[in-house]
Amino acid sequence: MSNGFRARLGSISTIQSARSLFPTTTVEPTTAVTFTNVEPNLIGTESTYTPSVTDSEGFLANSGLLTDDEVSDYFQQPDEDLSEMLTDLIRHTPEEPTSAKQSFLDVNIFPNPYDLDEEEFYKRHIEISKEDELFHDKLKQFFILSNAGKPIYSMNGSDEIIIGYMGVITTIISTFEENMNEEIYSISVGDMKIVALNKSPLILVSISKIAHEQPNVLLSQLNMLYNYLLSIISKPTIDRNFHNKLNYDLRRILTQLDFHNLDCLCMKMTYGLTSYDSFNYYISQLLNASLQQIKISYTARQRLNKILLDSKRMRQNSDDKETDLGADLLFSILSVNSKIVSFMKPKNHNLTNQDLTLLFSIINSSKSDISNDETSEDMWFPICMPNFNPNGFLYVFVKTIILQTTPVTITLLSSNKNSFYQIRQISNYIIHKLTKPKMLSKLTKELHESNTLAILREVPISHFIYKNKALNQFVMSDTDNSVNSVLQLSYFYNTLYHTKASQMKTIGSLNIKKFSYTRWTVDEAVITGFMLSDNNYEFYCLCNYQINSKELIGHCIKVIKWCEKNYNRLFIGNGVSFT
Amino acid sequence: MSSRKKTLLKVIILGDSGVGKTSLMQQFVNNKFSHQYKATIGADFLTKEIIIDNNKPVTLQIWDTAGQERFQSLGVAFYRGADCCVLCFDVTNEKSLNNLTSWKDEFLVQSNVSNPQDFPFIIIGNKIDVDDSKKIPSLQKKLHNITHNQLGGLNYPVFETSAKDSINVEAAFEVIAKMALQQEELNAASGGDVNDDYNDAINIHLDGESSGCGC
Ligand SMILES: Nc1nc2c(ncn2[C@@H]2O[C@H](COP(=O)(O)OP(=O)(O)O)[C@@H](O)[C@H]2O)c(=O)[nH]1
Ligand SMILES: [Mg+2]
């Protein structure tokens, strides 16, 4: 927890008056405005709607919230008008973010029955603990067990305490199994949700007391844990070990690193904590395994792509024999903090986003600390990419080099176990090209600037996400990785994402726009969340004060236009292919 | 390279209702004896750690029925993946002794273990604290017949115990744990874990049609 608890909430700060930790105001999202039942032609009636906090047909026209028509208006302006509007908006000087130390506890994301302070709360309810003492206080549990009832992994607690539960779970699941042969079981008991995934001979279970975690989210988390196991040991290995040996203890072939990685995954999936890439991972999963991108100029990207393609064609002459060094190379990835800058793949094959995020996750947690060093050691390990092929292994070469201050990771996937020396030569070639003076200075300058998206200086939006739907890739503003910020941002975006969207009236257009709007009130402070989407994009943003709806839409459109204009700089698209 | 954790053994206790299975488990794990136990779901689980041969820690995950053995419906999860099995009878109840063979058969059918002849079983005759007058007449002879019957094949170590007075309970569980651990070590030695099998390389035909990848 390097960032500490007292770190200021970077992007979303609100005024906090002196008061107890327990705010009297409710922070239920003032539930989204939805219009599903509204006649599309009820123009002018918006002001007669009464405020509603349910997801019924009402909306809060009088409190600065959007009306259907207001939003629609914006999209029926011809583009000339739009540019005029935008000039207006540019003149708008963003208000200084109010500096305050709003705590995640004030947002009532989690119940706080013992009235603990942040640090105590984190220790008692959130942090992973293998001691039995706090087992029942944890908001989240994950279990992986064999269907004989033998524990394989538990997020919290010791064997002592979980072994009994494992027995109970197996017994219940097998009762269902005998009766209906289902793969998924989900029940809710009070404020607790339990989801089990039966991947015989393994069973995965998640138990959550976190209100905003929906069963479908828990299920995808379980699939992620399962995919992790597949990626390190593959399906055939699991099956072979359990074949004729239902009492097999899978822990025998898992290493300490695997248990550590599973811990990291559990924290990432649930809270977006605790490493530098965890929040990005959380958002990526929330957006359906979308891949996070990094801004870089088109020419720079083209050059990087060319380096990857050239490296694939490398040959070596020795003893009158020519060897094709890249013969077994399948995928090459250049990335900065898990964000892909350049990607090369075979023409007929691809890696899914799920596989790529899993790959990055594993690379990150196995990476040695390279912060003081120029380059990391070479890593070479087998990995199964479950969506690519659950039955076999690819071999990954990973090396991180520091360009000035930016860590650039080279990841090369080969189909051949014995190709380490060839692949390392390819990596050396790539490093050689990257560190040529001209390339180096251009690249470092660009990567340095990409950290902050310029557009944010012009709008009073504190945080945004723009996702290109066709590519399933997204860009997002920077986040300070403090526990406090991450817990709030993940909660806000999660709520916004799951808020039912309303469809906008668009005349004669097939490009249907949808939006939703959510507001959180924490004492006197207001946080506004807004989602806008059409066939091409999804846009989410947070604004740290009460903002006039017209203004807000204007700002959003401005950011969206900026993202569209910078398409080639923001997205890697499909990467480059070799044939 | 694997993180050799403590070995975990799944122990299941079988026998007619009322022979004292729950009492034995309670005595072994909690050093308690009570006349009333109840369980709410299909099985009850207790855990106990013991040290075998002075240096091998094992965790026993003991599965007890919730009394439904009366109806002979223990469900597959109960038997699945057991490492050893304790067959119990009551020294005052002859029928429970005669039923041992069917409990063993039931176990082998349901658990589907691969080498039944090597599977670790022990037999426990419980309630030896009661007055001799109530015990099965010529118990030793009958017991001998059962364990040495070529056909029945219950040739397993026998322990006479009292869950009530805590006689021989620990010794019995230690022996079964030791047997199970030995079996486990044998399995590990022969064939062992499949975990260095990274040779399932993927055959990719880069110029041909999509193949080798599941996408
Ligand atoms: N005298 C005596 N009674 C016992 C002993 N073990 C169990 N009992 C009693 O036998 C009855 C059945 O025991 P229980 O453990 O419930 O048997 P289960 O149905 O096999 O689980 C209870 O009334 C116990 O108190 C023992 O060692 N000695
Ligand atoms: Mg009982």
Automatic annotation (TrEMBL), chain A:
Q: List the subcellular locations.
A: Endosome, Multivesicular body membrane; Prevacuolar compartment membrane; Vacuole membrane
Q: Can you cite an annotated GO cellular component?
A: fungal-type vacuole membrane
**UniProt keyword list:** Autophagy, Endosome, Membrane, Protein transport, Transport, Vacuole
Q: Which residues form the FUZ/MON1/HPS1 second Longin domain?
A: 328-428
Q: Which GO terms describe its biological process?
A: autophagy; protein targeting to vacuole; vesicle-mediated transport
Tell me what topology the record assigns in the membrane: Peripheral membrane protein
Q: Which InterPro entries match?
A: FUZ/MON1/HPS1_longin_1, FUZ/MON1/HPS1_longin_2, FUZ/MON1/HPS1_longin_3, Mon1
Which Pfam families has this protein been placed in?
Fuz_longin_1, Fuz_longin_2, Fuz_longin_3
Residues forming the FUZ/MON1/HPS1 third Longin domain are 461-566
Q: Which residues form the FUZ/MON1/HPS1 first Longin domain?
A: 140-259
Q: Tell me its family.
A: Belongs to the MON1/SAND family.
> What job does this protein perform?
Required for multiple vacuole delivery pathways including the cytoplasm to vacuole transport (Cvt), autophagy, pexophagy and endocytosis.
Q: What is this protein called?
A: Vacuolar fusion protein MON1
UniProtKB/TrEMBL annotation, chain B:
A single Gene Ontology molecular function, please? Answer: GTPase activity
Q: Name one GO biological process term.
A: piecemeal microautophagy of the nucleus
Q: What is this protein called?
A: GTP-binding protein YPT7
Keywords attached to this Swiss-Prot or TrEMBL record, sorted alphabetically, are: GTP-binding, Lipoprotein, Methylation, Nucleotide-binding, Prenylation
Q: Listed GO cellular component terms? A: cytosol; fungal-type vacuole membrane; multivesicular body; vacuole-mitochondrion membrane contact site
The record, for PROSITE patterns, names: RAB, RAS, RHO
Q: Which residues form a coiled coil?
A: none
Record-stated family:
Belongs to the small GTPase superfamily. Rab family.
